[in-house]
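Researcher: Structure prediction, please.
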Amino acid sequence: MQKIILASGNPGKLKEFQILLADCNLDVRPQSEYEVSDADEIGLTFVENAIIKARHACEATGLPAIADDSGIEVDALKGAPGIYSARFSGEGATDEKNNQRLLSLLVNTPEEERSARYQCVLVYMEHAKDPTPIICQGTWEGRILDTPVGENGFGYDPLFYVPEYKCSSAELDKNLKNKISHRAKAMQKLLAVLQNKQTHV
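Model: Predicted structure follows.
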């Protein structure tokens, strides 16, 4: 079975990926197993950053890699924090500090103007010079609550309200989240492409 490197150092994402990839018949290993450092995310879009991370992992290991770049876009903030979601509160950013900053910027913003979405871009590269990386995107619509609710998930999950389930992402059962989230949607597309490639080899 072909080894594939998962180019992420985020423990929350790695947990989700392990669940999403559990039945996929691919031998996916976190980059930490190969002591790969985090890539310098200098891109201006989710796509650019995901390609940078995948290429970095390919270069370091000589193996194919899957990389994710994801974040939350808030309409009232013109799409911020976007690609800066993980470091929104600046130096030493944590989930809690990022959530607090988001709430402070949305003070007095009425509910109907708090629409937001999670975006995820997944990139698969065969090798560091792969000229045609596979790029898959998933989007998850919701809105921003005015106080954090729930203990599950990570990132902005306690603030991300999911209308069809009438709760925050952090209140969802993890198995349900891993069927309906932005990352789940992108991964379903990517796995379909990879499985198609395997059958045509």
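Model: Residues 182-199 form the longest helix (18 residues).
Researcher: Thanks, that helps.
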